[in-house]
Amino acid sequence: MSFYRRANLLLVLFFVFQSCETIPFLQDSLNGKGSFSSAIPQVEGASAKRDRYEFIGKEIIISSDHPLASQAGMEVWKQGGNVVDVFAASSFAISVLRPHSTGLLGGGFAIVHLPAKGKWAYDFRERSPKKGTSSFYLNPDGTVISGKTLKGAYSAGVPGTVQGILQIQKQHGKLPLNVVMAPAFRYAKNGFSVYGDLALAVSKTWPDMNPAMKKVFGIDNRAIREGELLIQEDLAKTLERIVENAEKEFLEGETVKLVSDYYTEYENFITEDDFKNYQVRTTEPLQSSVWGYTILTMPPPSSGVHLITMMNLYSEMQKRNTFPSGNVGEIIRITEAMRVSYRDRAELGGDPGFTNVPVSKLLSASYAKDETNEIEKKVVSGSWPVPKEEIKKPEAYNTTHISILDKDGNAVSTTQSINGIFGAVQMVPGTGLVLNNTMDDFAILPGVPNLYGLVGSKANAIEPGKTPLSSMSPSILLDGTGKTKLVIGAPGGSQIPTSIFNTLYRYLVQKESLYESVSYPRIHHQFQPDRVFLDPEIKESFPQLELPFYQVQYIRHRAKVFAVTREGDRLIGASDPKGEGVPLGF
Which of 184, 465, 507, 576 might form a disulfide with 517, Cβ 3.0–4.6 angstroms? Predict the structure, then answer.
């Protein structure tokens, strides 16, 4: 079966579901796929899942975190939409389908590249409300109030997801808003089958949910289970109001009033004025030459600059002959590039509207040389610092990502989030919307780690109107002729930049296939804790005896990469086989 016939058949299959949207297993996605080389390690089960998690087409491909989100994008494409309409449709859909990862009271970033029009970086991340200050989260003695940024009403920032999606679609889309939002509305109103990851998230957070939230995610006073039908009636009504009122709904509409009413019991922490004052920030993407390509990524407060620094440092270390040969040298180069980049993130990262982030310096060749010189000293002398005592933090890896690329090089890379699992674990009554807990992405005090174990400095301190530092790094790569080569991004908290790095390293440097690169076991280091995190499949080949100065922990990486690339006249999409999402296209 050709991919054209398969795509049409899939569309027919999706459209027949009326009362409940289900997740089909997408198999036989193309003819003539190459088989895996036994020499290439893959995360558990990846080789057997390739038919589901890889797609080859010629017109367009979307790779997202849920099959029905990818389907929503293809639905509007078939109706004459462009890549931005696909972005908007899948973004609204994923907010319905993965409410534990993202939502309309969250925020995000998007890189939009339309070769005939231009390129843009959109920041619709959450902002600290007017009442948001560091002192608000401290005890009288100056210590941090435990959990105040993690859960509950005070952990939420002013959301920007709806404002961002609407502005981008209004500027660059082709279809009416009601057409673009139709799939999301259908998923909310008719329901869809609860999948394992969602059921687990509901079960974990059930004790902390407020009554409005338990009403949506519960059946007979207990947490909803895998395979049961999730219907979100209040969310469907919110989507209807957005269709009717567009951007006004999140300026002065009923949804804003309902959020404001909710906060009357919480010192009016977020008000209608906070929504009215919210602005989507539009800038040029951060652009740099890396590994023979031009990368377009988000400027600060994204971690795009630190992703580029990581790549530059690796390249500079490759030029030096002082590093050990073979696998040992590669591990040192990769690990130290990550360590320096995450140190910079911790010490310098923040909102450029409030603090000076020295982007030009961090991206300069001289900086890469100077830092490599310092790394070389450790390699040559064998004098490695003793790892410091680390503070244990709970794992929580969420967020979502969508990558879209068409045959003309039009592309969108977007990462969206409510931060932790189900964000603040509070639903605003009458909206069907879960609050984010993005205030935890600020540094309450210098050196105090957040939910993901990341530390920050005064540059990322809480201030009214400020955007917190983010790991999200949506990116697009152009080849030497200026044509779009690759669209990539990932959810996964602190592991986002390193997961993108790992995938780009495998695909661009090691010349493995995109799917093999996405599903290759990963290495991660984030400065603090001073530890190398490795997927379990690496254990047998990791040269621990030759790297005694590294503390190593084998643990499954939770970040999921979603990517689409162009190879000749083919488009190839890959979704991370650790998740539920799949690529679709024509």
Answer: 507
d(CA 420, CA 441): 10
Q: How far is CA 510 from CA 65, 104, 273, 327, 365, in A?
A: 26, 39, 51, 13, 23
Active site residue 399: yes
Active-site annotation holder among 309, 355, 372, 399: 399
The answer to whether the CB of 327 falls within 8 A of the CB of 149 is: no
What pLDDT digit, counting tens, does each position of 461-477 carry? 999 999 999 999 999 99
Side-chain-side CA neighbours of 228 within 13 Å: the count stands at 17
Full 3-state SS string of 479-514: CCCCCEEEEEECCCHHHHHHHHHHHHHHHHHCCCCH
Q: Within 10 A of 19 (CB to CB), how many other CB atoms are there?
A: 8
Within 13 Å and on the Cβ side, how many CA atoms surround 563? 30
DSSP 8-state code for residue 409: -
Compute the distance between CA of residue 56 and CA of residue 565 in angstroms, rounded to an integer: 10
- Please list, residue by residue across 540-555, b when 16 or more beta carbons sit within 10 angstroms of its beta carbon and e when fewer do: eebeeeebeebeeeee
Per-residue pLDDT of 343-359, as tens digits, reads 999 999 999 999 999 99
Residues 6+ apart with CB under 8 A from 82: 172, 173, 174, 406, 410
SS3 of residue 263 by DSSP = helix
First to last CA, the chain: 13
Nearest to 54 by CA among 27, 89, 14, 93: 27
Rounded to 5 degrees, φ, ψ at 292 are 85, 5
